[in-house]
Amino acid sequence: MADPVKPRSKRSGRSGGAAARRESRLRGPVVYLPNAIRNIPTYEILKQDGLEAIDDHAMGILETIGVEFRDDISAKIWADAGADVDGHRVRIPRELIRKLIATVPSEFDYHAHNPDRSVKVGGRNMIFGPAYGTPNLIDLNGVRRQATADDMRTIMKLHQVNPAIHYNGGYTLEPMDVDVPVRHLHMVESSFNTTDKPIMGSPQSAYQARDSLEMAKIVFGKDYLDKNVAMTAIFNCNSPLVWDQTQLEALRIYAAHNQAMLLSPFVLYGASSPVHILAGTAQIVAEALAGVAFTQIIRPGSRAVMGVAPMGVYMKTGSPTFGSPEVALTMYVYGQMARYYGIPWRTNGAKTGAKQEDLYAGYDSILKVYPAILGGCNLLTHCGGTLEGSLCVSLGKLAADGQQLQSFYTMLKGVRFDDMDLVLDDLAKIGPGGHFFNEDYTRENLPFLDEVQDNERFESWIATGSKTVGERGRDWCRSMLDRYEQEPPTLDEAKREELRSFVGRRETEINAGQF
What we know:
Elements: H1 18-27, E1 36-37, H2 48-65, E2 67-70, H3 72-81, E3 84-86, E4 89-91, H4 94-101, E5 107-110, E6 119-122, E7 125-128, E8 136-138, E9 144-146, H5 149-161, H6 180-194, E10 199-200, H7 206-220, E11 231-237, E12 242-244, H8 245-256, E13 260-268, H9 277-298, E14 304-314, E15 319-321, H10 325-341, E16 345-348, H11 359-374, E17 379-381, E18 386-387, E19 392-394, H12 395-412, H13 420-430, H14 440-444, H15 458-463, H16 469-486, H17 493-511
Parallel strand pairs: 2-12, 7-17, 8-19, 10-11, 11-13, 13-14, 14-16, 16-17
Antiparallel strand pairs: 1-7, 2-4, 3-4, 5-6, 8-9, 14-15, 18-19
Helix pairs in contact: 2-9, 4-9, 5-6, 5-16, 6-7, 6-17, 7-8, 7-17, 9-10, 10-11, 12-16
Enzyme class: transferase
Region (Disordered): 1-22
EC number: 2.1.1.-
């Protein structure tokens, strides 16, 4: 809703030409964007009776079919809480589910070791995060290859200076030159050393969860995590209706430490969920609520986020597809259900099955991001260059995705009546047939500029090398890496050394089988 008319403000003086302003924008210090605050409405697919019907079906699934918690300890925890447990099959009365999820905070602060980079999750707040878990990349030379630890750190640096990326996404790349059992140590250490934004930890096992949180305690202080969220992690339900032991062991550790958990069914529409949008949504709501409720048994009031990672399926091979209308509709309804329960929600964004930065990479990505934006998503992952259904990150697409996020950030601000009188005075002065290029208000309130897109004439594009979006994006990355070196984030040297010592010690222990 637009703001009411405000008192007329005074016009400020001119502050330089357009060329100077463009140079300042492209070469000046990075302007870090705080979390977006939604000033546009959410897109509502269902009315109240529809929401109540999905809720009833989801609760029915939990009560009658049940969810498998494939871990003896977790199954016993459910039994002690009052659920009907048969082996690992857990059937949960709706009254118990409602009681448990009532303690989930609807909003929380997500802290960075630089307080200026901390953000809010939930309510009207929205944050954007990068890609996650890709083993390959298209590098600055346009070559597709396996990712290394140096590549991981390079991408983390780009996340630091990308104005619209609000946190560093944990496994931004899978460094294939680092052994899997110790990979999480390098990921978390690099996150703290190369960025001062909030970071993610590892949920891959109990010992990796403990290591991640111990490293956070080194940076934030031993007691800080008990009351403050300094780390998040993604936990995937194996749809349909399975939470596996590895995820549950790590989940219990994060919940006990009061850190934020993103509980997300991994949905392949038509494979792991029914080919029916509302039935499928009822299933994934049940899966997510089972996970969210479990966190509240471990620690009431711990931060939990309802997540969903929806994808279509290429029925010939079973591989995921993106940007489909069914996925968009599922995201709209799922967002409504999260608001119905008063729980923040997360989904994944600019993903595509395309193999290069082509038209369909853009189509897929934007058709995933738009439903998240319009559907009221609070935390959007996978917004940094994903190709091949998360098997590859392109640095060229990473740059283009970042520009689109800034565009959406502007859209989320909505519209305002501020300065209406000033601008209408300009219109009266210019009159019919004039233009606004030379007006002070235009120069001082320039429209959003995409720094990767080429908006010059065709002849100018040819003269400057006919660069593709991938090439222009890689140029943007080189420029931003230069800016990173001009203003790198800082971390207390004693903490850096303590992190390095911890990583070295734990590598030795893990390699010796001491998990």
